[in-house]
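Standup notes, structure subgroup. Blocker cleared on the zinc ion input:
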Amino acid sequence: MGINIYYYESKIECQCCQKKSTTYKVRPNRYKVVDQDTDFMPIYDGLNPMLYEVAVCPHCGYAYHKSMVRTFGPFMEFVREIYIKPLQKPMSICQERTLDDAIASFKLAYLVAKASMEESLVMANIAIKIAWLYRLKEEKKLEIHYLRSARDFYGQAFASNKEGEERIHFLYAELSLRIGETEEAKKGFSHLISGRDVSDKYKKLARNRWEDYKYNTAKKEKNVNEG
Ligand SMILES: [Zn+2]
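Run returned:
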């Protein structure tokens, strides 16, 4: 068998059933981050490594993302009871994935995280990635649905450091804007712009984003009135 030039096989030992398997990961020289969206979605040139972030065990169906922390002891009992038991047939998505496969893998991770009662921040970070995958698929309604879930989780989330907290506040405002809750977005951005302890980085990000939004809205209204 020849070497796959796009992917390598990562070995996994399932934390749920302890069986071994392998799952594709994109080779580091096959992608490059060239930009990011206003909600920090990385834009890649080449392949998209995000499609391979969730490892799904082909034996029992357990789905693992590196952001998960409640992956032991009593939490795994909840996962077995709430997630594994009702699962029909485990999916086999350990090789090349379509966007739909990737969405399925993140949805499984979302269910595992819910079963093990992961913190809101973990839930938010999984939900936003499902939304991003729907954005790539150009399914606006489902994208908005998951952006809203992510926004609500960010609204309850805490981080262990200042940078993390500011990121959460920014994303709360940004996602509010994207789902059409402009007043909530405005409140969130103003909080960052005028906050005394807020870092320059997030002050600037919030100011630029809100000003761009106002400018574009004004331009759109002008076009409508003149058109
Ligand atoms: Zn397993």
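Discussed briefly. Residues 160-222 form one domain.
Next: hand off to the docking folks.
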